[in-house]
Amino acid sequence: MELGEPDESGRRRPIPIKGSEFVLDVDVVIMAIGTGSNPLLLSTVPDMELTKKGYIVANEETGETTKKGVFAGGDIVTGAATVILAMGAGKKAARAINDYLMNGESGN
Ligand SMILES: Cc1cc2nc3c(=O)[nH]c(=O)nc-3n(C[C@H](O)[C@H](O)[C@H](O)COP(=O)(O)OP(=O)(O)OC[C@H]3O[C@@H](n4cnc5c(N)ncnc54)[C@H](O)[C@@H]3O)c2cc1C
């Protein structure tokens, strides 16, 4: 593959290089690409609200989900993002979880 010319959005997209394909002799292929949410969430936790893309809907300040006592943050809420955002969400959720355990509510 090589990057093509920028399109109208300015983004360069990969285009195949003719004749560059080759065959590998392997026993097993484990696909590990993509950053989507695990579809198990949809089927196993039906009472928790998810976005259309299957990410968890959570309060930005507390990480509270629509399922009582369950908090979420990081990529499963924002979609693929960064470590620093996931860490921030974790800190906020930890505070809210502490409030929830002490008072039965997260303070929001
Ligand atoms: C290839 C790649 C490169 C990246 N490079 C950067 C970078 O340079 N800088 C940067 O800031 N970010 C980078 N990111 C993004 C960053 O890795 C994520 O934003 C961050 O890891 C999100 O943290 P998280 O805790 O939300 O999720 P994760 O780090 O994905 O943690 C989720 C954890 O939950 C576990 N888990 C999943 N399902 C279950 C289950 N059912 N039961 C128990 N455990 C479960 C998983 O094994 C995993 O350990 C990169 C991501 C990828 C894929």
Labels describing this entry:
108 residues; alpha+beta; FAD/NAD(P)-binding domain; two-stranded antiparallel sheet; 3 helices; 28% helix; 8% strand; binds flavin-adenine dinucleotide
Question: How would you characterize the overall build of this protein?
Answer:
The structure is a single chain. This protein has 108 residues and is of the alpha+beta class. The chain has one domain: FAD/NAD(P)-binding domain (3-Layer(bba) Sandwich), CATH 3.50.50.60. It contains three helices and two strands; from the N terminus they run E-E-H-H-H. The chain has helices at residues 40-44, 75-78, 83-103, and strands at 2-6, 12-15. Strands 1-2 form a two-stranded antiparallel ribbon. The longest helix is centred in the C-terminal third of the chain and has 21 residues, at 83-103. The radius of gyration is 20 Å and the shape is elongated. The mean pLDDT is 91. Bound molecules: flavin-adenine dinucleotide. Flavin-adenine dinucleotide (FAD) is lined by residues 74-76, 81-84, 86.
